[in-house]
Specification:
309 residues, alpha/beta, eight-stranded mixed beta sheet, two-stranded parallel ribbon, oxidoreductase, NAD(P)-bd_dom_sf, SDR_fam, oxidoreductase activity, SDR family NAD(P)-dependent oxidoreductase
Length: 309
Amino acid sequence: MPSWNLHDMPDLSGRTAVVTGANSGIGAVTALALARSGARTVLACRDAERGRRALEAVRRAAPRSDTRLVRLDLADLASVTEAADTIAKEVDGRLDLLVNNAGVMALPLLRTADGFEMQFGTNHLGHFALALRLLPVLGVAGPARVVTLSSLGHRIGRIDLDDLNAERGYSKWGAYAQSKLANLLFTAELDRRARASGRDLLALAAHPGLSATELGQAGPKLSGRNWAAKLERASRLYTQPASAGALPALYAATLPDAPGASYYGPRHLGETRGAPGPARRSARARDMGMARALWEESARLTGLDPDLV
């Protein structure tokens, strides 16, 4: 579909969805689009006050929608566990769509509540734990999808299984790229395991191109002749609004007959902007051996059973 947009969203009446980081940017657009299309929508947000304002905004824009708010701090596994339990109750035991949207980018070296490097712990481990803890309600009443947001930055990412928590050295952009590569490897392995177990569950991924969101605005100013500096200069020319950046995730969430493990992004200007379509992933993102190894290590770090799927 060459010009897919929000008007192409299908009727989602009777479906339930959770969007992490739904208080601003791409997450807010995604949640509103799902609510307007009839889905019961849960906004999973770290900041309670900002989440409350986002909930009110959705209810004003889609007054007939069934929209809820759950507090979720992906940088705290205890919060993830509590949020998953609350979500299961809010959706009455049925979840059809999980959009792993929330994330942080290019932070100085910080640690999560559980001692993980903040970007890896939030962007990957938090979503990994949330998805596994929601498995009892995902797809119990029909086909379900897990859509995880990655980034163009995954292409320079490397997974260091021996130093996932940056104990031997730290690069804020390297850590970000690693977390976004991890998102794609998680998607591939979740989809493989779901197929092998016979679950009616698809795992897909998307990226927003270069979009004007709080995530990008909160990042540091860049300098030097490296990929990050080039990305910043390009963004001044090619950044698109969050309303456009959300389209690939919504496309992945609702496209009929989408293949499992698909990856979508903007189709134009090097995948920086435009209508959604298939996106290119790096060779490392297609390494199923690494996907399995990362899954096992992620389960160990989060204390979860790797064979839940």
